[in-house]
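ESCALATION

Customer reports they have been waiting on this structure for their group meeting. Please prioritize. Original submission:
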Amino acid sequence: MSSTPLPGIGVRYDLTTREQRPLSVVAHRDGSRTLSAYRKDDPDACALSVRLTSGEAEALIDALMPAHHSPSLLSTTELGLVAERVELSATSHWNGRVLGETRMRTETGVSIVAVLRRAEAIPSPGPDFRLAGGDTLIVIGTREGVEAAAQILGRE
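Update from on-call: job pushed to the front of the queue and completed.
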């Protein structure tokens, strides 16, 4: 699966099934989701697109992956928090800079709880951690804070 930040919109997640069927999910900033399936013979032709409210998306997630099958899944919505993945592009302004320069916690109130880099996970990166294009940052905070963090991290 790959992800693409969509500044001002959210994040698009793309995957291709074992049967070579392209699928995408756009995670909108307001919590809604758009699920799209594309034609096998023409991956640019959308065969189905469904916009789901955040509640409908949660119900679909529960149907696809019941919580009892994933006991380590962190559910933060009841606490008013969200956790999201934010990917840094190769041309990101933050590529090669240290995390502290983003002023993420000061500006947005969110915490960066981990960085995924290639096949490695770096938990609790400190302010001197050097970011790189392609890094995926796991951020947690309020919906508004996460949206602001994605805007800051999407800077090119």
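Sent to customer with the following note: The chain has three helices and nine strands.
Escalation resolved.
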